[in-house]
Amino acid sequence: MRTGEQYRKGLAKLKDNVYMNGKLVSRDDPVQEGAVNVMAATFDYALDPEFKGIGTAKSHLTGETVNRFTHIHHSMEDLLNKQKMTRLFSQELGGCVARCMGIDATNALSVVTYEADQKYGTEYNKRFLNWLKRVQKEDVACVCGQTDVKGNRPWRPHQQKDPSLYVRVIEKTKDGIIVEGAKAHNSFSSCVDEDIIIPTRHLTDEDKDWAVAFSVPADAEGMTLINAAFSPPKRKKLQAPYSKMGATHSITVFDKCFVPWERVFMCGEPEFAGKLALLFALFHRHSYTGCKAALSEIMLGATALAADYNGIANAQHVRHKLADMISVVELIYAAGIAAGVNHTVAPSGTYVPDTNYCNVGRMLAGESIYEEYMDLAAIAGGLSATLPPEADFENPKTKDMLNRYIMRNPDVSTEDTHRAFRLFQDIMASHWGGHKLIDALHGGGSPVIEKVGIYRDFNLDHSKNIAKRLAGIKTDANDPKGELNRLTHAFI
Ligand SMILES: Cc1cc2nc3c(=O)[nH]c(=O)nc-3n(C[C@H](O)[C@H](O)[C@H](O)COP(=O)(O)OP(=O)(O)OC[C@H]3O[C@@H](n4cnc5c(N)ncnc54)[C@H](O)[C@@H]3O)c2cc1C
C-alpha cells in the first residue's frame, strides 16, 4: 500500500494533459490542491491505526493486505465495511471520498467480464484480474468515466448526428483498440493514476461499437481532460480542515486514443453493456449510502451547532427539524446495511448488494439534500450568507466591531462563532457549496433514475394481492403469502 505522499509523487510524474481556466496545467496546480488532498487522504487513512480493518482488506487474488478501495467484495462483511469506510472517511473529509468510483467500477467489471467470458469464450476476466493484481499491488488510484456526453438525450448512440457523443471504438488493430468520444462529469480524473471507462446505458446490436470498457493511464496519448476544480474559499488565518478539501470534474476527451488489448474489458458485446452500466450504478449507490449518510450527518451537525450558537436549541420546532434530519441519516445508512445483508453472490464470486435497498437509500439522500440545506439555512439565519470576509475580521478598524456584533450565545467564544458561520457559508453560500448541492442530487444517478429502478424491481402484484385479500377480492393463487415482497428483477 502507498502513503499519501507516495501517491502525490506518482501524480507529479504524469504528463500534462489537463486544461483548466483556459490553459494547460500540471497536476500540482494549486487550483486542484483540495482535490489532491482528498485523494491523498484515502491512502493515509488506510494506514491509520484508528481505521484498522476499515480501510484495508485481504485480497482474494493474492491473500495480501490491500487498500480497500482496490478490493473485490468477497463477503457480506466486505460490503458492510466498504459502506462503513465510505461513511467514516467522508465524515473526516467533509464530503466525497473520491476513490469510490474506482472500487465500484472494478467490482462491476469483476462480475460482467466473468459472465461475458462464460458466454463468448473471451478472455476479459483474465485480463481484468491481471490488471487488478497490479492495481492492488501498486495501490493504483482509479476513477470511473461512465456518463457519456450523450448528445440528444432520447437518441441511442448509433442515432446521434455525431457518433462520438458516446465513447466508441473506431478501429481495432492486432495490438488493441482506438477509441473516440468524451465522458462528462469525470470526477477526480485529474488526480488519479488511471481512468476506468464503461458504457453509460443499455445498448442494442446496432450500438456494438459503443459497447466498450477499458482502463487507461490518466495521461494516455490522445486523452485530454478539460477540468473544473472546486474547493471551499481559501482561508488566510482561520484555517479549518473543511477548507483544505476539494474536487475536480472533467470532460474527458478521447481523440484517437489507443488502448492495448490487455486493458480492454469489453469490446462489442452490447448485451453486457447495459448490465455493466447498471451494476456499476448499483455498487455506486451502495457507496452513496455511506457518503450521503455522512453528508447528511454533516448537515445535521451543522444545523444542531447553529441552534446551539443561536441559543435556540431547546425550541420545539428546532428539535422536530433535528429529529427529521436524524431520521434521514439513519434511513440512508440503514438502506445500505440492508442492501449488504440482502446480497446476492455473482458466479464470479463477487458479493452484490440488493438493488432496491440501494436505490431507495440513494433516492432518499438525493431528494433530502435541498431540504437539509433549507433546514441549516433556516436555523442558522442570514449571517451564513452575509458574513463579512475574513480580512474584515483582521482589519484593526473593523475587527473589534465584528467580534462584538456577531456574538450570540454568551457561552460561545467569538472565534468559535466566527468559525461556525464561516463553515455554514462555505457549505451553503459559496461556489463550492452550490456545486456540492448539484453533486448530491445527480452524482451516482439522478433520483428519477432510481425511481425507475425502484418501480421495476418491486413486485406490485404482490402488494395488490394484499389489498385484494383485505377487500375480499379473488387473488392470484400463485402469490405466496408466506414471503415478504422481494425483487421481481434479480440482478444476478
Ligand atoms: C458533481 C457530479 C459528479 C459526477 N461524477 C461522475 C463521475 O465521476 N463519473 C460518471 O460517470 N458520472 C458522474 N456524474 C454524472 C451523473 O451520474 C449524471 O449527472 C447523472 O447520471 C445525470 O446525467 P446528466 O448529468 O447527463 O443529466 P441529463 O441526462 O442531461 O439529465 C437531465 C434531465 O433529463 C432527463 N433525461 C435524460 N435522458 C432522458 C430521456 N432519454 N428521456 C427523458 N428524460 C431524460 C433526466 O431524467 C434529467 O431530468 C457526476 C455528476 C455530478 C453532478
Could you characterize what this model shows?
By secondary structure, the chain is an alpha+beta fold. The protein is 47% helix and 15% strand. The chain has a domain of 177 residues: Butyryl-CoA Dehydrogenase, subunit A, domain 3, CATH 1.20.140. The chain is built from 14 helices and 14 strands. Helix 1 crosses helix 2, helix 4 packs antiparallel against helix 5 and helix 6 runs parallel beside helix 8. The structure holds flavin-adenine dinucleotide (FAD). Flavin-adenine dinucleotide binds next to strand 5, strand 7 and helix 12.
Shape: globular
Query: What's the mean pLDDT score?
Result: 95
CATH topology term of the domain at 278-454: Butyryl-CoA Dehydrogenase, subunit A, domain 3
The H-level CATH homologous superfamily of the domain at 278-454, spelled out, is Butyryl-CoA Dehydrogenase, subunit A, domain 3
Low-confidence stretches: none
Distance between the termini: 32 Å
CATH class value of the domain at 278-454: Mainly Alpha
- Using the CA coordinates, give the radius of gyration: 24 Å
Which range best describes the helical content: under 10%, 10-25%, 25-40%, 40-55%, 55-70% or over 70%? 40-55%
Strand content: 5-15%
